[in-house]
């Protein structure tokens, strides 16, 4: 598989090459299916999705009397597209004003970068954006954020060492007063195993609801695709605490093995609003299942 940051993910250089070799075989047999199974597991598809894909491929092999690896590849791509298409649901930023988007994710997942990318994207669609710096623990990060806000025409509401929930509450009121279209409410990103964090972000959610009973309109979890199956544990923890309504899956460029999206589709399906495909501000795209699958096998 060749790296294709412009389009999206690859199966990871090694996995992609193994896969290409497998499918270039002339004949389908049990051994080939076993090797495909191992490769799917290596690509972060997880046990459940892998089992499903292999079972379905086996059925189609017998039923349609498939002969070549190339035909089997076509079936696998079809199956993956079938799994992922239900997750292709664009984020609605037009129904509410302000649209309140709460962002969650552990440090290092790409949350800050994704917030910048989202702000730029929404502004390009003609929307005004306000950022609530709900991660009140990182002082340096806060200053950086203010500076970033000035440069990008995004109002940043923050508070020294304050209560994250209070910051978000203020931000929503400020957005109303200024007629802002979209509030991006950042939250703290320590590890989800830390109970305290989950309590804190659950509180942020409650405060948003208090400020606007129709909100939050989106609880967006930022997930790093490089962490493989751990993404599922993170999703489960955040989902339990705040009810995740959408995902930004980051770092699908480089060596990421996009199979984790198939695992999510099978075990805890959530709309994938955007995928991150690089570090630059424009390296974010809406998730399109067909493009994603084609890039995987490119
Ligand atoms: P945070 O701690 O969750 O706020 O994470 P950051 O936004 O600071 O990102 C952590 C690192 O990941 C930084 O070096 C980012 O440039 C990088 N990063 C974020 N998103 C992507 C992505 O989609 N692709 C790549 N290659 N790097 C990313």
From TrEMBL:
Compartments where found: Cell membrane; Cytoplasm
Top-level division of the source organism's lineage: Bacteria
Binding site for GTP: 105-112, 186-190, 250-253
Reaction equation(s) it catalyzes: GTP + H2O = GDP + phosphate + H(+)
EC code: 3.6.5.4
Sequence ranges assigned to domain SRP54-type proteins GTP-binding in this UniProt record: 271-284
Family of the protein in this entry: Belongs to the GTP-binding SRP family. FtsY subfamily.
Subunit structure: Part of the signal recognition particle protein translocation system, which is composed of SRP and FtsY. SRP is a ribonucleoprotein composed of Ffh and a 4.5S RNA molecule.
Name the record gives this protein: Signal recognition particle receptor FtsY
Biological source species: Niveibacterium microcysteis
Gene: ftsY
Residues of the full protein shown: 74 to 371 of 376
